[in-house]
Amino acid sequence: MDIRPYEIAVPQDDLDDLHDRLARTRWPAALTGGWERGTPVDYARDLAERWRTAYDWRAHERRLNAMPQFLADVDGQPLHGLHVRAERGDATPLLLCHGYPSNLVEFARLAPLLAAPPDGTPAFHVVVPSIPGFGLSTPLTGHGWDIARTADAFDRLMRELGYERYTVFGEDVGAGVVDQLCLDAGERVVAALCATDPGAIATQYTPPTDHLSDEERAEHDRLKAARSEDFGYLAVQTTRPLSVAYGLTDSPAMQLTWIVEKFQEWTDPTRTSPDDAVDVDDLLTLVTVSWFGRAGDGAANMLYEAAHAAAAWGRTHDRPLGMAAFGEEPLMRRILDPGGRLAYWGEHPRGGHFPAMEVVDDLAQDIRAFLGERRLAAV
């Protein structure tokens, strides 16, 4: 595997082109209403104008470049990421796996927090690759980049970086990568932690719920009904990814609203808007990296590949597995860990689908508490 140091250096012409496209956006009619039909036009216009005029990409480019990055070639596929090493000799190798519709920017505040922790707490050598097709791990150079192939690439990456044994954290699609690593990499994975939120138990992939009481089953049905109209993005991208890829590649306004709508749907429900749930410039940085990487197309195709790949039903592993749950919902543990068999369960009343951006200190606490305890087995 060819791995070389990398710094982000977006050409000024590309930045000018982004601003020009935003200025020339053809907006839909601004009908009244909330988020039930997608990102409201007035909200989208205000955020796009901030992106065009007030947001300083160069400052955030410098912030990302302050952390060591790599660009790897995995079977001809570019793989971009962060590699933030701790100064301490007892640091634990840690792979962070993001989900949809994200990229490495999601962990840009978490990585240095874990690599340079307060005295007396575990330290980590942190590796944060963007999934092939996401962020700057672009363009996709061929078909077949499903969860299993991504997990294999990440395992090869960790070994090439010198980590024969390591811990791993993931959420959403990244949790699928974590599970695949536990199955295929075996004892190289010392321990694994996944994040969850109430939305995770309201999908078609929910584990069996026969053990729930009638009252709990009714509440679970209510949660699923509330999410029933949230899966249009998935239906399109798992069947006709190219149909949406043209717009995501050509229109920054579409790429912005496509991602922002998921931050509205999936972040802490007590928050009123995406910029109330996460730092607005962090959100715009995540979107900007997706835009410059032309990642709307790659992310859509990855979901297509995942939906059409053979699933590893029935396979089990013996890797220590923990869960960090964000948002107050008692059914999460009742459904995901009914027998209390997980090696770790952490609960936090705030946060949602993007804990590294919403409640970074809480997530760092879980990673240190569970994965940090495995450091002697990993180093």
Automatic annotation (TrEMBL):
GO terms for molecular function: epoxide hydrolase activity. InterPro entries: AB_hydrolase_fold, Epox_hydrolase-like, Epoxide_hydro_N, Epoxide_hydrolase. Keywords: Aromatic hydrocarbons catabolism, Hydrolase. GO terms for biological process: epoxide metabolic process. Pfam families: EHN. Residues 3-107 form the Epoxide hydrolase N-terminal domain. It comes from the Bacteria. Belongs to the peptidase S33 family. This is Hydrolase. It comes from Cellulomonas chitinilytica.
